[in-house]
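Re: the multi-chain job from yesterday

Posting the exact lines I submitted so nobody has to dig through the queue logs.
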Amino acid sequence: MTAHSSPARPVLLGQNQYGKAENRVVRITRDGTTHHIKDLNVSVALSGDMDDVHYSGSNANVLPTDTTKNTVFAFAKEHGIESAEQFGIHLARHFVTSQEPIHRARIRIEEYAWERVEGTGADGEEIKHSFVRQGQETRLTQITFDGERWEVVSGLKDLVVLNSTNSEFWGYVKDKYTTLKETHDRILATEVSARWRFGWTDGEQPAPDWNESYEQTKRHMLRAFAETYSLSLQQTLYEMGARIIENRDEIDEVRFSLPNKHHFLVDLEPFGLKNDTADGAVYLAADRPYGLIEATVLRDGSEARIPADLTNL
Amino acid sequence: MTAHSSPARPVLLGQNQYGKAENRVVRITRDGTTHHIKDLNVSVALSGDMDDVHYSGSNANVLPTDTTKNTVFAFAKEHGIESAEQFGIHLARHFVTSQEPIHRARIRIEEYAWERVEGTGADGEEIKHSFVRQGQETRLTQITFDGERWEVVSGLKDLVVLNSTNSEFWGYVKDKYTTLKETHDRILATEVSARWRFGWTDGEQPAPDWNESYEQTKRHMLRAFAETYSLSLQQTLYEMGARIIENRDEIDEVRFSLPNKHHFLVDLEPFGLKNDTADGAVYLAADRPYGLIEATVLRDGSEARIPADLTNL
Amino acid sequence: MTAHSSPARPVLLGQNQYGKAENRVVRITRDGTTHHIKDLNVSVALSGDMDDVHYSGSNANVLPTDTTKNTVFAFAKEHGIESAEQFGIHLARHFVTSQEPIHRARIRIEEYAWERVEGTGADGEEIKHSFVRQGQETRLTQITFDGERWEVVSGLKDLVVLNSTNSEFWGYVKDKYTTLKETHDRILATEVSARWRFGWTDGEQPAPDWNESYEQTKRHMLRAFAETYSLSLQQTLYEMGARIIENRDEIDEVRFSLPNKHHFLVDLEPFGLKNDTADGAVYLAADRPYGLIEATVLRDGSEARIPADLTNL
Amino acid sequence: MTAHSSPARPVLLGQNQYGKAENRVVRITRDGTTHHIKDLNVSVALSGDMDDVHYSGSNANVLPTDTTKNTVFAFAKEHGIESAEQFGIHLARHFVTSQEPIHRARIRIEEYAWERVEGTGADGEEIKHSFVRQGQETRLTQITFDGERWEVVSGLKDLVVLNSTNSEFWGYVKDKYTTLKETHDRILATEVSARWRFGWTDGEQPAPDWNESYEQTKRHMLRAFAETYSLSLQQTLYEMGARIIENRDEIDEVRFSLPNKHHFLVDLEPFGLKNDTADGAVYLAADRPYGLIEATVLRDGSEARIPADLTNL
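And the result, structure tokens for all chains:
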């Protein structure tokens, strides 16, 4: 990234991007009376030859953010939404190839999943146009295109998982501020925020099956969480990432941000009650503070490209 | 409710209640290596002979809110959590019968549902201690006890549903501020907030099967949403309530607060595109403002007791 | 409130209301280069002869929620926004008097306060069109009109206050679940949610000065919080309400919902540090659970009309 | 950053960090009956020789996150909180210098500002221990230390500003998806999220006066917002950054993330009303989508080091 000098002052413009954020687009497709739904939140960020608009306010190179919004909705009709990734690729290519001053486009998409509601219509036929939001995780993707190279980083957030045993924590450093007791049987719980980067970068090459990749990646990650006998949340994190790398050839890098959602064993002795984990115990689910464990897991030979910060805390 | 006069001033104390809100209690039970989880957010509100603490600050009649918190956690161990309703009944009875100055207890509970994560342990056995939060609706209950009569109001919130057809809106009043176009095929979507009151009030009588009642009530409500050909959200609301009343004898009253989550058909004509519902269309999912439809549906002969306001807007 | 029987089923319709919620209206007025801003969030709820729309979906009596939205924006231009209360009165009167099937209107308004940003224009004149949101409390009002009688309930939320001394808590009931230690010097902090009801109900009588009333009521409430040597949050609550009743003749009733925002004295002894309140201490500001203290304070001779629940927990 | 190979698998560990997030520490200091308050939310992230904990779960190099929490509270007592920046510096230095495996510490702090509530005590003296939260912006800082070099990035978020005139938008690119009308008088509003990096990196050199720097930086930024006649939000952003660089020698780089909080002029013509900006107009304050303008402004000769993404959308 090069910084550009202002005509009149010793103050430079650095990296900059603009676009319309959080376009909430819903696309229904009808196959007779069977309907399908895609529900996305699409954010556009464009960069390029944008010095003048910052220095003088000249909009001569600026495609309005309102136009980027219109494009999102028009493309949902023109191209459909096969997957969030494919939809983002259409958009990114369009902005970079159709507007000379725009050199780079980044499309971020959140996707909300729906499942069918069962019902029978007045005609006795099964209803196929009624949906309830699943509400579990939010699927994510980010498509970046600079006119030559593609970068696709997908992921998810808000996936809350918990193991009620097979987690220990002991053998750690003790300094003068350490009061924590070691434990050999605790709850391990987290709210998974993950991003994974695809090896696919060349638009001439066949792209992965984005939807299949998402389902399998989520499945491997969940199984790794369940199957790992954990001595630390870091170990579980690494295992979740390693399983993805080992099982999904199309993915080269995974970044996790895992809050340790503490469940404290409640002291019930003052009330004459034993509260042992072995028996099934009662826990206080705490809010703040929380441990926060973040790391990148990489395929050997790959470069780390996902930024370290998925959160702002 | 009687208001009490202050010793020194012409200012009266009216209805009052206090307690510890949002106790986040998680209870694990173990059946060998098969674990079960209950995840609640419990809020306690107590009323009674509490004039002095307001007028003079004397705490002689005040069981500390901290004690009510301890009681929640101790009861989760002592009594277990068979259902949110049953757990609330234990708590309410305890506060009213064990503390002379406390005449009324109200327990509100939110419950978060979990499902199992599949996995295989190192021993080759299926893992039964790993969970992922479902994340769909939040189950609710409110137990009120005044020493004689019970009132149980259960419900849910955050359940987002959508019909992609079979919804019309026309034939309404037009005044000088009306610009809305009539429609014969629109998306109907809402985020259901519902409360239902049980007929059960006498602790000597057998109580409903709370968990079965919840599952069936949710099922009937969803089916009614899917199966109703809707001319207005009010009609759909009434149908959802009527189905519950007709199918669940244990329930006498239902209150709904249904935001009309508007999905606006996007005008794509400027871009040379048709965007007809019959073809499968593209919609903008709007945030604010939104229609808000609220109503009570009652069993004939029952009294309306659920307050009108489930929201503060 | 009467419940109406459905033509075909033993299921009654109870209280119901509908309208457009959360209309975010901003009104600028210009006095030369000096601008003024009013920033409101307006929610409309209408009730009346609405059986048919629930039973059959007939919208013949239904003024669309979209029309109520249009009316909010048109009235902001036609009538201006002198105060949230006055604006709500215009709206409520309009809906009830202009639409025969509408018998009752309730207008809820949130108001966000702004202050000026200092600056000098290119002409050397002080800038009077630049604002920064204050961000402290949110001002509230609710106007209800049934064609004859007015009810105005104003208030605020999100006002966070803290006394770092002059708060004690001791002399309370101890039962088998009590572990709390008594304290003679603690932090008392809360996030005030308050509603106050005006005596004004007759539209023929002169109305209070709504803006002056709001400023003075907030001032008295804050001073009462600061000046009360507190033995319990209930005592402080009562004092806050009593001061309003004593000083503001136009107000007959106040309802508070006061979470006790616990600040726990941290135990630093394991680190060889004393952490005494008398010295200035370090506290952990806790999130959940929290004490929740709610009460009504009334003018002698007045009736309590504000609902008990300002929150849903 | 080097990635390390796992002993057994072709899967590497990349950048990683851990610590306790969101420690809510409140520090009261007493100067006789005059009290002062500091209210922080402190998040610790540590990096270093942490391969083993990821690969095998060995915690031999892991200082528990619980210990980092204890350290935050203990340091608030031992060192006091002169400024968020100074407090973060104490913490970062401690972790890096006291624990051999820890090579880098990053401390992020949010600070909430309070102002005094006026009141008179029973003794007739002015009360100096009662506070109300200001609630405007949240002050931010991030301290990073690797044992040699310091990096301090401060900033703020949630500061909502609005100009009711002196904003135009025209002369932009029109493509086939452009429908936006040009305007020569619009509202310009944004919610400022800003980070600024200090030139101070050498702990041996005297540090800036952090509190004075914050107040002045905020003041210059606000004045620039008010005083700029704006042809685009990009121009206003650049001006806000340039003013900081020009006026605050201690700051070398500023990054902004500015949502364009759209205020749409409402079309009131259907109701026979003119709604001209020149008269004072009525606007709809929209939620989503919104323009999002992000850029870095740099001192000539400085390197851009603040990451591009301050948000996740």
